[in-house]
What does this fold into?
Amino acid sequence: MSKKIVLAGGSGFLGNALADFLTAKGFEVVILTRGNSRVAGSIRYLQWDGATRGAWSDEIDGSYAVINFTGKSVNCLYTPKNKEEIIRSRLDSVRVLTDAILASAKPPAVFVQAGSLAIFGDTLQECDENAPHGTGFSVQVCQRWEQAFFERELPHTRKVMLRIGFALGKNGGALEPLAKLASMRLGGTVGSGNQYISWLHVDDLNEMFFYAMENEQVNGIVNATGPKPVTNREFMQTLRKVLNKGWAPPTPAPFVWLGAYLVMRTDPSLALTGRNCVPAKLLESGFSFGHTDLEAALRDLLVPEKAHA
It folds into this structure.
C-alpha cells in the first residue's frame, strides 16, 4: 500500500507542483481544499475550511506526512481586513492540523510547514537560519506563524518549517508576472535594483519537501532557497537575456508604489524589498541542488525544449 501524504491548502501553484512530484514517486496524495471534494487523476481533493475539524481529519490518521501550504496570499493590499485574514488563515490551519495529529491513533511521522523567508525583513546581509529577524508586518506574521507551529509538542511527529524563497516554476507562481513584463520590454530594474532575490527552481523545492519528509535528521527551521541569491538588477537582466529582450527602462520606486496600488492592487513592499538568504542547513546536511545557475534555471523554465537543441 502506497504511503499517503496530506497536502493542506495544496491546490495552489506550489501545492500542485508537489502533488505531481509525489504521485510520480508512487505516493498517495490527498489535498485539503476550500473547493469541492473531487477526484482528479490519482489525487483526491477533500473540502475543508482551514479552521475547524471535519471529515478530512480522518485522512490525517494513518498518513505518512502532513504538509501545510494554507494561508491567504500576501499578494494583496495590506488593508486591515486583509492583514487579519493573512494572519488568521495561517494560525488557524496550524492549530487545527495540530489538533488532528494529536487526535490520531496513528499520527504521521512528519509535519512540514511551508513558511517564508520574509521573517528576515529587508536585508542586504547574508542570512542563514540563525540570522536576526527584521521588522514590519510581514515579519510579525512569520514570527506568529512559526511560534504557533512549534509551540505545541507532537510526541510522535517530527516538525520541519521550510522558509521558502522566490520559487521559480512554469505556468504560474512568482515568475509568471515578471516574465510577462519582460516579454513586453518592461522588465527593467525595480526600485534601487539592489534588493536581493533568494530564488530557487521549483524542482529543487519539491526535492526539499521530499528530503524533509524522508530524513529524520532534518527538523526545526530550514531555509528552503537556492545557494546563490542575486540582486533584482541581476535577476531582471538575466530574465531579459533569456527572453531575448534588450534594455528595458527601470521602474523608480515612486512608480512602483503607484503601479502596485492602482494597477496590481498589491503591496509595493513585495517588489521593493528583498532578502539575501542562504540554505545553510541544507548545504551542511548534504542536500544536492539541481539548479544553481540562474540563467540555466530560467532557460529550463521559459525556453521551449526544441529551442535548446
About this structure: The two ends are 41 Å apart (CA to CA). The chain has one domain: 4-233+264-302. The mean pLDDT is 94.
